[in-house]
Design goal:
binds fe (ii) ion; flat; 10 helices; Four Helix Bundle (Hemerythrin (Met), subunit A); 3 domains; mainly alpha
């Protein structure tokens, strides 16, 4: 694999050349004063959730005993939820987020769309094979699927990195906050209840506490109708203390 794309400045941390001197870069990044960009970031929160989901399902696939129907069924449920979220997320990016650059810099999203087509093909292949092995569990087939799931994750990670850094930076350069807010409204409106619930389920445990709390405080003020659902998911997916903290913040913000 060649060098991953590099971008000069991400949230105040230079990441140029990190692959040449990884240990040094890690120490530097851990000690840097991170500048949080105040503008709306359309990728990072959901990508954190997707990373959690991809790592989790890969580890689960590796530890599944295919001779145990309960374990195979649990893995299948976890996989199908993540698959639904991955497909919906790709659609949101293609239909709404990348379209922000059409009138400014259409060339900036060509690579991203090409990667979407490739990744969609890999995902369809994985989905088909997952259903086959779930219908007729077999340890050797399951092991092959686990390895290819890990290879899919390896392909998906640099794609998300490029979107969060190069593409989002270009959107900030070219688009107003109103344009970005419009794209967010459009993809949020296109989500069905299942995708909304899956997004929350994967994002809540993947976000840092302050970001998670701010997200729910904003929701309590803007969309109190869905708050009970969000807090119900929080109770299921977060450690009790974090779920209780979220509940208190929602009550104070509503
Ligand atoms: Fe993407």
């Amino acid at each position: 694999m060649g060098r991953l794309p590099t971008h000069p400045l991400v949230s105040g941390i230079s990441n140029l050349g990190w692959s040449e001197c990884a240990a040094l870069r890690t120490v530097a990044a851990m000690n840097a004063t991170t500048t949080i960009i105040a503008r709306d970031d359309l990728f990072t929160h959901i990508h954190k959730g997707l990373r959690l989901g991809l790592f989790d399902v890969t580890v689960r696939a590796g530890r599944t005993n295919w001779a145990d129907p309960v374990q195979a069924t649990e893995l299948g449920q976890r996989w199908r939820g993540l698959l639904t979220l991955l497909r919906a997320h790709g659609d949101h990016e293609e239909q709404h987020i990348l379209r922000l650059l059409d009138s400014h810099d259409p060339a900036a999203t060509e690579l991203t769309s090409e990667q979407h087509r490739d990744l969609d093909g890999l995902l369809d292949d994985l989905a088909e094979r997952f259903e086959k092995v779930l219908a007729a569990p077999d340890a050797a087939v399951g092991l092959g699927l686990y390895r290819d799931l890990a290879r899919f994750v390896a392909a998906y990670l640099p794609h998300m990195h490029d979107e969060e850094t190069r593409v989002m930076s270009r959107i900030w350069e070219c688009c107003t906050d109103d344009e970005i807010a419009g794209a967010r409204q459009r993809f949020m409106a296109s989500m069905n209840a299942r995708v909304q619930a899956l997004s929350i389920e994967y994002m809540l445990p993947a976000l840092d506490g302050p970001t998670r709390n701010a997200l729910v405080a904003g929701l309590a003020a803007a969309a109190p109708g869905v708050l009970a659902t969000v807090l119900g998911i929080a109770e299921r997916v977060l450690p009790p203390a974090e779920a209780a903290e979220l509940k208190a913040i929602a009550a104070a913000s509503g």
